[in-house]
Amino acid sequence: MPRPGPALELGTGRGRVALPLAAMGVQVHGIDASAAIVERLRAKPGGEAIDVTVGDFAAVPVEGRYPLVYGVFNTFFAPLTQDDQLRCFAAVGRRLAPGGAFVLQGFVPDQSLHPGGQSVRTTHLGRLYPGAIRYAWPSELDLMARLAGLRLRARWGGWRREPFGPDSGVHVSVYEHAGVAAS
Question: How many domains does the chain have?
């Protein structure tokens, strides 16, 4: 459970994380680029309680300090340049409360799916959504964090704190201000 104080979600979307956290009593603020998606969030029960800023989350256009800033479901890969991702790390560092945590969750590409550099496979086809991402390997995220004055506190291979290793398909990475003792 997050420590007392507000949490900030990067890429709030329809609220699949913000709404359950708010229902648990956590004050949640969010940033999302889409006013239409924010309206869908607000239409849900409890959605009006989520304070969402419409804008570019790479700039973290909010005020205040947060004990928890998070980006899940690969949201951090939405900024399409390394510079924008680094700008996001730096802005989060300015908004992160002392002793706070910046939690990122994302996929780790399976290189075996890309022999010769390219591969297309279909396991299920449902709805199609246009989209673009700029993936960053966990080691690159660590470097961006370090350049922004943050450091890796912990990394797991899933939300149950599974060990992270070469076969991990996802990572949950927790960053903190550099020079802060891990708690």
Answer: 1
